[in-house]
Every structure is written in C-alpha cells, then in structure tokens.
Amino acid sequence: MEFGIWSNGFRPHTSAAETYDEDLREIVLADELGFKVAFISDHHGEQVYVDKVDTLPVSELLMCKAAGLTRQIKMGAAVKVIHLQHPLDVAIQAATTDHVIGDGRFIFGFGSGFPSPAFSLERGLSFEDRQERQQESLEFILKCWASRAPFDWDGRHWKAKGVVATPSPVNGGTIPIATATETEPMIRLAGERGYTLLTAHELPQHLKRKTDIYRAAALASGRKDSLRNVANARFIYVTDSRAKGIDDLKPAVTFELQFQAARGLLKLVNRVNNWDLDENNVTLEQLVDIGWYIIGTPDEVADRLAKIYKDSGGFGTLLMITGKAWADRERRLRSMRLFMEYVAPQLRHLEPPGDKAEAA
Prior knowledge:
Elements: E1 2-12, H1 16-33, E2 37-40, E3 53-54, H2 59-67, E4 74-77, E5 80-81, H3 87-101, E6 106-111, H4 117-121, H5 130-146, E7 151-154, E8 159-163, E9 177-180, H6 184-193, E10 196-200, H7 204-220, E11 230-238, H8 242-262, H9 265-273, H10 284-289, E12 293-296, H11 298-312, E13 317-324, H12 329-347
Parallel strand pairs: 1-2, 1-13, 2-4, 4-6, 5-6, 6-9, 9-10, 10-11, 11-12, 11-13
Antiparallel strand pairs: 1-3, 7-8
C-alpha cells in the first residue's frame, strides 16, 4: 500500500491567503514524511460559504507553488469539474501546469463534482446534461493534448474551429489521469483506460461494489492488477486516545457539519450509505461510531483501517484527509507524523489482490 493526502480544504474564514498557507504547510510536510501523492480539492463558491469559509476554486495554482517547495510528491485536483469550463481552456491549463510542476508529478484529476445545479446555472449551462457534457469535454481535452495540427470540434455541447492547444503535455500526448465518480459508466471507463479511481468515505461494501465494476472493466480491456490504481480517502486523526481526538476535533467538525447539512452533502451521504442520521443534529461521536471519522491511537487507527481494507476487497493507496481546521496546527501536523511513523508501517504490507490472467 502507498499513502497520500487529500487536501479537502475547509477552514473558517480568515483570509484565503492564510488558508492556502496552511494547506501548503501540510503538503510540504507530506512530502517530507514520504507521502506519495496529494490530491487537492477544487471548491467552488456557494452562498452558504460567503464571509464564513475560505475556498480554493483553482487548485492548480496552489500545486504550482507547492511544486517549488517540495521534492517528490505528486499532485492532482480532486477534482477539476470539467463540465463547467470550455475544454480547450482546461486542456491548456492542465498542460501548462504539467510543465510548471515538472518531473511527471502532475495528475489530471477530473469529475462532475458535488451535484449542485448552482455551479452549472451560474455559468449559463444545463445541470441535467452535465454527465454527457463531461464526457464530451474529456474527449475534447484528450484530443487537444494529442493533436499536432489545428482541428475543428462539432459536438453537441461544445463547438470550436481551428483549435491549437499549446503547450503539449510533458510526455507528448497525455497526462496521468484520475477521476472521482458515482456513475457506473464513468467507473467502467476509468477501468478500461487505466485512470486512477478516487474514492472517499464509503462503507466497505459500497467501495467494493465500485471497485468490482472498475476491476471487471479493466480486466476486460487487458489491464491486470487494477486495484493498485484505486485510492481511498478517509478522515483520519492520530493522537493519544480516541477521547482526546474527539475533544480536539469536535469544535471544527461541528462547525463544518452545519454547512454540509445546509448544502445537502449529509443528505447525499445518508442516501449513499443507507444511514439513518439526523442530518441537522449529527454529532462527531456518531460519525466516529459508524467509521466515517477514524480517530485514536496509532494502533486503534491502524486496526480500523486494516478492517476497512479487508472488508472492501483492497485498494492501492490510502489518502489521509487534510485541509481542516482541526485542533491547532501543531496537533494537525503531529497527527500526520504519527500516521507515517506508527500507522503506515502496520499497513504498508497490504497488497490488493491481483489478476492472474488476461481477460478472454
């Protein structure tokens, strides 16, 4: 197993600059500790956040700064919502970021994002056809990266004449790709093409349902050992005891939950996991009990994560969620250090089941 972070930024309003500095501290420490990858959330503005929560809507800018402060960690968006922007501009921005970061450390992470109509409507786009628009956007982006001659695009959602996209990606025609999705067609496509599948928080049986689809599609396309290419993110906080961890996190988590309830995320999570939580009165203790938050000593955390790994059928990378205003900076960074010093060694030997033979 490999380890990374998911910088899923949510910090109370100070200034965006201060929030980004805290994110950078965690990414730099992750690099120093040996985390292999940092996925960084793109969070678009919502009315509920105004003057209350800082957001990072263009994660590539943070990645480019982080690249100059780190040595080896790979970075990608989690996720770039590609149905909201013209594919030519997305393709150019990604290829430029690929060059600025350099050393093959950039990953193009894309997805349809949180299912809020507001993001599409404020850009004059339809919400209902976002998945279809995303698929067309992806193919347009790939053509931009691969083409060396001007081309026209006459799609249902995007029109373009004489497209010239420069620079080309560092490695010629493509960039490593990752996606986060809840739709079976995109899960299958990711498996067929070898895209990293980003997952987060799911109950083990639900994670297994997704990875079974992904693995079958990969094998049918001749791709073996695809579960190595699945990354699973979890809320993890390592400290001296579960009780102390709950005390450390409770103010910040309670603050965040009121926003997640207002914007509908808790309702979505309830539905996906078949939970029966009161979305307006959910507590951190409840979320720890059901395994959404994993808090405790290194041994307690390692045991809980090993069980999730076993019950889900395995995955290749575990992502520790960061970007939160938990406790204070010293304790947040200490949790990361404790994780890599005491938890990671107990999990590193885990290897997802491979595929012995090619598909017929």
